[in-house]
Structures are given as structure tokens and as C-alpha cells.
Design goal:
The chain has helices spanning 12-52, 57-108, 111-127, 132-144. By secondary structure, the protein is mainly α. The mean pLDDT is 78.
């Protein structure tokens, strides 16, 4: 008898990590593109200046350096933005994972424990410690886990 393997479903963790990787990749790609555009602008300014004879080589060099600095600043900003997005996604995924784990723990409590808790809640309701509304709310939560 041949056993067939079930297809493996991707979990929440891998989905969120993939999102984080994509965000970082996009940020780096944008940063690199911005840097290249800055260098291109600097080269264009240098070419135009030299062609027109309006600026000297020293002035052209200063202008090119200024464009490079602007491009480097933009790259750093985009890298920080990508890092923030990655951290946000990681934190979001951690919260969702913790929530799922808590849900699983609640559901995994045994039926006997649930019945004992319901009995105790019933006694508290009869003695007037809790209201009927509170009892019904807790009962609904407990029975949902069974």
C-alpha cells in the first residue's frame, strides 16, 4: 500500500517572512535605482557644463559630488524605510503567531476541564456571585473550544 503525501501548506510564519524579504528587496532595489539616477544626473550636469563651457572642471566636480551626496542620502533613507517595514512585518507576524498559539492552547484544554469549569460557573451563578449574562458569555466561550 502506497502512502500519498499531503501537500505541505505554507504557514503564517513563512508568509510573513516572505513579505519582509520582499519589502527589503524592494527597498534595496529602489535605493540602488535612486543612487544610479543621482550618478546619472551628476554625469549629465557635468557633460552639459563642459559642453557649454559655462562651468569649470572644479565646479563640475563639485556639482557631481553634490548629486552623489543627495543620492547617498536617499539610499540611506530608503534602506531605513525598508528596515522599518521589515520590522513592522516581523512584529505583526509575531503577534499573529502568539494569537494563534493562544487559541490552540485554549482549544486543547480537555473536555473534562471545560465541564468542571462550567459546573463551577453554574454554582457561582446560583449563589449570585456572577450574573446570568456573565455566565452565558463564559459558557459560550468554553463550549466554542470543545
Amino acid at each position: 500500500m502506497v502512502k500519498h503525501k499531503k501537500p505541505i501548506k505554507r504557514g503564517y510564519i513563512s508568509k510573513f517572512l516572505k513579505k519582509a524579504d520582499e519589502a527589503i528587496g524592494a527597498g534595496i532595489k529602489n535605493a540602488d535605482k535612486t543612487f544610479q539616477e543621482g550618478i546619472k544626473k551628476a554625469d549629465e550636469a557635468l557633460d552639459v557644463g563642459i559642453d557649454l563651457g559655462i562651468i569649470s572642471t572644479k565646479q563640475a566636480r563639485k556639482e557631481a559630488q553634490r548629486y552623489r551626496k543627495v543620492a547617498q542620502i536617499q539610499v540611506k533613507q530608503l534602506q531605513k524605510q525598508a528596515e522599518k517595514e521589515a520590522n513592522r512585518l516581523k512584529n505583526e507576524s509575531r503577534k499573529k503567531i502568539k494569537k494563534k498559539i493562544a487559541t490552540v492552547r485554549i482549544k486543547s484544554s480537555s473536555r473534562k476541564e471545560t465541564l468542571l469549569i462550567l459546573e463551577k460557573l453554574g454554582r457561582l451563578r446560583k449563589t449570585g456571585v456572577i450574573t446570568e449574562k456573565e455566565f452565558q458569555k463564559k459558557k459560550k466561550e468554553l463550549l466554542k473550544g470543545i
